[in-house]
Amino acid sequence: MKLKLLALACLATLAIAGCKPQPPAEPAAPAAAPAPAEVAAPAVADAPIEFSQKAFAGSFSGADTKLMLAADGSYQIAETHQGEKKGDGTWTAEENGKRVRLDPNSKSEEDRLYEIVGNDEIRLLGKDGQPAASGPSLKRDAAAK
């Protein structure tokens, strides 16, 4: 009989221990899902800023050159250093807004490259992509802002 009581006491102890409420476990944070702030910051820092052709379009001029970059990708240029010379064609941004290429409609003329110095200034580059010795920079006209 003592053996039965001892077995019953053990079972009761196990039953009570099994029913004892356990403290809630802290939910484990998934390792693959970082907090939203951690996701946004690196993505913004690493992502290049996109160049907006429409926003950059405008009128630029220098000592003897007047260049109009239209938002639709066309351009008109007038130069007076060797007499009155006009031209037109299309322009595109290269290297995500670091350079502008003028592609003239007249195929007897060569493409021109301009370095974008800032939102209000571009500088003529040579065929090799280096600043041209005789190419002054063109500044955005104040009325075109």
From TrEMBL:
InterPro entries: Cu-R_lipoprotein_NlpE. Pfam families: NlpE. Residues 80-108, 124-145 are annotated as: Disordered. Keywords: Signal. Residues 1-17 form the signal peptide. Residues 95-108 have a biased composition (Basic and acidic residues). This is Copper resistance protein NlpE N-terminal domain-containing protein.
